[in-house]
Amino acid sequence: MEQRAQQKLALVDRKHLVLAGVSHVGSFDEREIILDTNMGVLVLKGEGLNITKLNLDEGTLSVEGFISAMEYKEAKSARAKGKSMLSRLVK
Questions:
Q1: CATH at residue 24
Q2: CA separation for the pair 32, 49 (Å, rounded)
Q3: Is residue 2 part of a domain?
């Protein structure tokens, strides 16, 4: 059985999220944040989203704002989603 690091996710009142296990932030704006985590690509959706703390060495992230959805995707990596339109077309 494959061993992987634990992922911890704490959401308080849909306004404050603390997440452990983050390896990369693919893209972010006030409505959507796309993350690579040790459990796959995680997409956060909401309004007024703001990354208040990010430490990739520790793998931690804090987000504030109204969180309406959290969804794990089966994509290879958030890095590809975070690339510009031009870099995706030039491939």
A1: 2.60.40.2000
A2: 7
A3: no
In terms of pTM, does the model score above 0.85?
Answer: no
Taking each continuous run of H as one helix and of E as one strand, the counts in the chain are 2, 6
42-54 pLDDT, tens digit each: 999 999 999 999 9
- From the CB of residue 91, how many other CB atoms can be counted at a distance below 10 Å? 5
Task: Give the β-pairing of 60-73 and 8-12.
Answer: unpaired
- Report DSSP letters for 38-72, one per residue: TTEEEEEEEEEEEEEEEETTTTEEEEEEEEEEEEE
Mean pLDDT over 1-11 rounds to 76
CB 59 within 8 A of CB 6: no
The values of phi and psi at residue 38, to 5°, are -70, -5
Answer yes or no: are the C-beta atoms of 9 and 55 closer than 8 Å. no
pLDDT of residue 74: 76
pLDDT mean across residues, the chain: 85
